[in-house]
Amino acid sequence: MKDQISYSPEVRELAVRLVFEQQKEHESQWPTIKLIASKIGCTTETLRTWVRRTETDRGIRGGMSTSDRERLKELERENRELKRANEILRKASAYFAQVELDRRSK
Fold it and tell me: Range of 29's domain?
C-alpha cells in the first residue's frame, strides 16, 4: 500500500487555480494538469481529481458538489442512528408489552 501524502488546502487551491489559468496555453486540460502536478509534486490523477471536484463545485461540470456529498453522508449517518434507535424502541416496546401481559395473567 502506498503512503498517502496530505496536501494543504492552500496547495490544492493554488494547483487548481494554476490549471485553470494555464489551460488556455495548451491543446487540452490534460497537458496542463501533467505540468502543474510535476511542479507541485503530486500525481496527475490527484490533481485531476482536485480539478474535477472544483469544476463540479463551481457548476462547470455536472455531479454532486462537495457540500452536497458531505450533507448526504451526514444524512445517511443520521438515518443509520435513527434506524438503530427505532429497533431498540421496538424491542423495548415488545418486551414491556410481554411483561404487562404476564402481569395481567397472574
Answer: 1-63
Only one residue has cell 494538469, namely: 33
Instruction: Indicate the residue type of 90.
Output: R
Could you tell me if 95 and 54 lie in one domain? no
Among 60, 5, 2, 4, which residue's Cα sits nearest to residue 29? 60
Answer yes or no: do 1 and 21 share one domain. yes
Q: How many domains does the chain have?
A: 2
Q: What share of the chain is helix, strand, coil (3-state, %, to 5)?
A: 75, 0, 25
Q: Are residues 11 and 37 in the same domain?
A: yes
Give, for all 106 residues of the chain, the pLDDT tens digit: 456 788 999 999 999 999 999 999 999 999 999 999 999 999 999 999 999 999 999 988 888 888 999 999 999 999 999 999 999 999 999 999 998 888 887 7
pTM across the whole model: 0.66
